[in-house]
Design brief:
about 200 residues; mainly beta; four-stranded antiparallel beta sheet; 14 strands; about 10% helix
């Protein structure tokens, strides 16, 4: 990743974290997402290869501000085809990106599953199973919510820029239920370091 792209991603992350940084700033451009359903709103968003959060949270104090110029937006959700769009951001301008996820006909859901409940903080962290983005922690936390996976050996990765990544291998039998509990410590990979894709 080029230095300019890393700087852009760092600025993007900082604007998500520190609202006062972008108050009245007309140098950056804003990207607003419009998702048609829960599928889109819970999908993960990558800007130039860097995970920045899930679509439904990228507004208000967590609005997405980027340096002017071209950027690659990718939106992912397990069981759906990636949505990708190249945008050109203009200083001080707001741009709306309409996201529509399409089911991936090649994905075959398992007939028998095992269940993983997540008790992880922060709840906006990205969840990957065997390297595939499945959603964010909040989707699999609480009563009646769990991550259903195919039995066998699974690699679970939970990542968020600015936090240390959690990874574990877990062996699950059919219909087995388990819980993963952890708090991601701050100080992980530098912003601008791509997460799993």
């Amino acid at each position: 990743m080029s230095l300019a792209r890393k700087t852009c991603v760092l600025l993007c992350f900082l604007t998500l974290s520190i609202p006062s940084l972008h108050a009245g700033d007309k140098v950056l451009g804003e990207i607003e997402f419009a998702g048609a359903s829960k599928v889109e709103n819970t999908s993960g968003v990558w800007i130039d290869g860097q995970y920045v959060g899930y679509l439904g949270e990228l507004k208000g104090s967590k609005k997405l501000l980027l340096l002017p110029g071209p950027h690659q937006i990718t939106v992912r959700q397990g069981g759906y085809k990636d949505f990708s769009q190249r945008v050109t951001v203009r200083a001080g301008a707001k741009q709306i990106v309409a996201v529509k996820m399409e089911k991936d006909a090649e994905v075959i859901l398992p007939r028998v599953t095992a269940e993983i409940k997540l008790d992880v903080k922060p709840t906006r962290a990205a969840v990957f199973v065997d390297g595939v983005f499945i959603g964010h922690v909040a989707e699999f936390t609480g009563i009646g919510k769990a991550l259903l996976v195919e039995p066998g050996k699974r690699r679970i990765t939970i990542s968020l820029p600015g936090y240390k990544t959690f990874e574990t291998d877990i062996e699950l039998a059919a219909n087995q239920k388990t819980t993963i509990k952890t708090d991601l410590p701050e100080g992980g990979p530098a912003e601008g370091t791509p997460l799993h894709q």
